[in-house]
Input
Amino acid sequence: MPRRTPYTQVIKENKIREEHVKGMGDTLLIGFQCLNKKCKEFLFIRKDEIVDVFDIKCPKCKYRMKSGEETKFYDYKLYHKKEKKILEEGEFSILHDDYITEAQEYKYCIICNTIKPKYLFDKHGSRKSGRQGECRLCKGVYNSIKNQTRISDQHREAAQKRRLYLDLAGGEKIDSKKIVKRFYNKCFKCGKDLSVVENPIEKPLDHTLPAYYLWPLTTDNATLLCQQHNGEKSGKWPALYYSDKELKKLAVITGIDYKILAGKPYYNPDAIQRLEDHIVVDELLTKFSAYIDELIKLRNRLIYDSNFDFFKNSKIISKIHIDRADKIYEETYKKRPSS
Output
């Protein structure tokens, strides 16, 4: 099928192409950390410069990684407990050749001028690198401009909405490797093997108890799903998405009580408690003042579901906002049956 004639043209002005990126659109790099245990430097070397015989020097600590050589980490002894004797002893070391061979591939994006993993560039058979010059993020933004589908304000509002809920939910740094291991690197819903998926976007971690009800994404409150089922599950309480058999299995895997998973939705009590503090509420209102409509939606939903009004805990909110929120509440919930 012939390609249709383009009807729009993106006229690019003030384009930035840094000197270190020029000519690098089809150049693959390999990235790895210096093997000197006291050094944190991460190195990027052109893949075409790595040959069978190599000598790589860390620009920070000057440590050399040479082909045919190795880096020692400790001495070991293999002890037989029953026979009470040393069976073998030696040095635990990593061969430089093996270390460089396993290094991941990277590439510069010719638009945002950053180094990114190769899998973040779409495949392109006719290019030397086998990948497109621009990363998926830049390509997506470009296409949305060209096709007139980009709505910047909506993107920003969606991002701020996520930030709002994450701030309220709180939580701690999650151990994604532990979560992936817990679900055997498979989508919990369909069993799809995600170990072969390169792009982490295609194997997202889902809030088991959703952020919609102010629950944080933690190591314990996370379910590994494929991209499709993560989209389907988004915002839903487990009982409204999974079968009873799946809920029982999920209770075993996550440690969340089956009665909670299979029960009715309820808000995270820790988040509600934070909203009882006028300092927290005032900081929240100030931080997200540009998105007051989203705060009003959350406030009204909490009143309807839990009879809790966190606007009353603010010492700075204007009566104008309160009156407007009350009006919207009447229009939205007045005709609904009480829950």
